[in-house]
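Consider the tokenized backbone below.
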């Protein structure tokens, strides 16, 4: 039996995160999910890691959602109690797949989903909530919930209409058809498709470019864009004004202006 784990290494200020549970389609156990949440949270407020890539082990699966074979850590009820109490499932969702997607959206560094194979259910939403998506030409995306009679979770109903609109989101969720990487590219669900042999190099190129850039500028840009659909124009204008003021005090903001005035390439520090 293969190991179920989140593999992690750092190269050139890029965090490489690999979901490794190949016997279960790189499905996430609760332990793997929580490890991923903690890992993404650890990137905030530091400058040693300045971008990250999330991918799946092997070439067949990116992540096919939750590993349903993994046992839950919920305590066993006594003989006179029901197996579940109203509120248990809600709490499980908020602390589980929803918290995972929030950790992706709220992570301060740019995240790239390097989709090497099938991304289904919350695995697809993990990719869609990332900042950039690079997919192999053999990858596919599946809103698989309707095939199981389930409600889409993992903030799918929040992220997908923002990417492709309400009508197309409903089509994908209702019919649960496979979407090829080329179709995903046409719809706006990913940024690039490349042959599988080029996936790592393309992801590495983008990640290293981001890791050598003005990290605080990226952080504020991500925060503004992720909030842009949720507030009115006046509120976003306030957010924007405060973001510009906060960024103006950073080293990289001063360096960018100085480099422009001196007609040279800037040397970004990430702070």
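A designed sequence for it:
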């Amino acid at each position: 039996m293969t190991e179920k784990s989140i593999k992690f290494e750092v190269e050139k200020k890029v965090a490489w995160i690999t979901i490794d549970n190949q016997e279960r389609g790189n499905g996430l156990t609760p332990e793997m999910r929580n490890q991923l949440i903690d890992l993404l949270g650890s990137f905030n407020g530091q400058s040693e890691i300045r971008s990250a890539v999330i991918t799946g082990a092997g070439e067949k699966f990116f992540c096919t959602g939750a590993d349903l074979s993994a046992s839950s850590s919920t305590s066993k009820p006594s003989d006179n109690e029901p197996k579940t109490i109203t509120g248990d499932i809600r709490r499980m969702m908020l602390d589980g797949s929803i918290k995972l997607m929030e950790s992706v959206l709220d992570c301060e560094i740019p995240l790239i989903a390097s989709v090497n194979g099938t991304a289904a259910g919350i695995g697809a939403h993990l990719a869609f909530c990332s900042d950039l998506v690079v997919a192999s030409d053999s990858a596919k995306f599946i809103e698989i919930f309707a095939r199981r009679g389930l409600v889409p979770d993992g903030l799918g109903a929040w992220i997908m209409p923002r990417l492709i609109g309400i009508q197309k989101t409903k089509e994908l969720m209702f019919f649960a058809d496979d979407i090829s990487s080329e179709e995903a590219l046409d719809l706006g669900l990913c940024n690039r498709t490349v042959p599988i042999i080029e996936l790592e190099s393309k992801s590495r190129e983008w990640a290293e470019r981001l890791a050598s850039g003005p990290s605080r500028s990226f952080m504020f840009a991500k925060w503004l864009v992720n909030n842009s659909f949720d507030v009115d124009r006046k509120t976003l204008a306030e957010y924007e004004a405060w973001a510009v003021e906060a960024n103006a005090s950073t080293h990289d903001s001063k360096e960018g202006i100085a480099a422009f005035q001196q007609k040279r390439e800037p040397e970004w520090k990430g702070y």
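The mean pLDDT is 95.
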